[in-house]
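User: I'm designing a mutation panel for Cytochrome P450 and want to avoid disrupting the core. Could you give me a predicted structure to guide residue selection? Please restate the sequence first so the numbering is unambiguous.

Assistant: Good idea. Sequence first, for numbering, then the predicted structure tokens:
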Amino acid sequence: MDKSHILSISVAVVGAVWFLVHHLYNSMWFRSERLRRKLWMQGIKGPSPSLIYGNLPEMQKIQLNALTSTPNNADIVAHDYTSSLFPYFVQWRKEYGPIYTYSTGTRQHLYVNQAELVKEMNQCISLDLGKPSYITKRLAPMLGNGILRSNGPLWAQQRKIIAPEFFMDKVKVMVGLMVESMQPLVRKWEDSIEAQSGVMADIRVDEDLRGFTADVIARACFGSSYSKGREIFSKLRKLQTAISKQSFLFGVPGYGLLPMKKQNEILSLEREIESLIWETVKERESKCKEACSSEKDLLHLILEGALNDQSLGEDSSKRFIVDNCKNIYFAGHESTAVAASWCLMLLALQPEWQSRVRAEVAQVCGGSLPDADSVSRLKTVSKINEHISVHIPHYC
């Protein structure tokens, strides 16, 4: 090999190395640094990141210190959960204010803790705001392109169709169905206590509440029962478990990639769920045509909204209906069950508030089951619900 060939190979190797280094520098530092500088020029500061891992080492250190400084689990339950689960957010909020920036690896994040600003950002459709793409991409098999995952004009379009179905006058109509679904669960708990000498019993409250909220959604929204939708809920839970193997926030181990077997499992579950939902939709559509009832459930109203929207074609209408049914099936029952479990746990820690709630329910409802009117007059219960809604994270 002569000198010219050696020189050519050397130049090619050096060029390839330079290109690789330049690409890594751009992707791992320069883009994030440029974004940070733009934010800093607007007065938005934050912790200084390292070259490769960003603020991940500091986040892990703060979290470890918080765990070792917590004397027992009672403190975690009795106080705001964010200080235990996300102590780095709390610490940085004290240092940099309610708006700051931080990074996880190559991703730059903007932390916003001002309700009005968050509301304004959520309603903005002219900018690329909303749910971050690195999260929504992984949630696609579970939520499709429904309202909980979409951004911008698509989100606005879906919200225009769906939001009116959750106005208070329509929610009030569903209270009777909620009470109807709750009665078997209360009887189940009472039977469990009686079977254990009528004093105390071990009950998996979280599982029971998941079944209860799923039944409410199936009855109120889709005109069926939980037993009919059991397969859909079961497959959604399996899909959630499969997707949860990916790291959403830190995203470093495996770079969010899953083995082919797991990817195939996710794809298979996604197809099965969509097929089951579409069967329910077509069955419901057929019943609606036959019955022509004035009382329409949520699924019927979503069907009408999608079919009457001139901007949606036939394929888009089907996609819209299936995706948003997936959103309501999963996110609705899961988040409500978590909130109810948390509420019962807090009441168990506060016997005084338990007594106040019981007294209020006895006074307002007497010996009757609650209805929409009596629920609206339960002021103490409303205060507790407001407290729970502030301290429980929401999906949208």
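For picking mutation sites, this is relevant: The domain at 133-245+261-333 is CATH 1.10.630.10 (Cytochrome p450). The CA atoms of residues 239 and 266 lie 6 Å apart.
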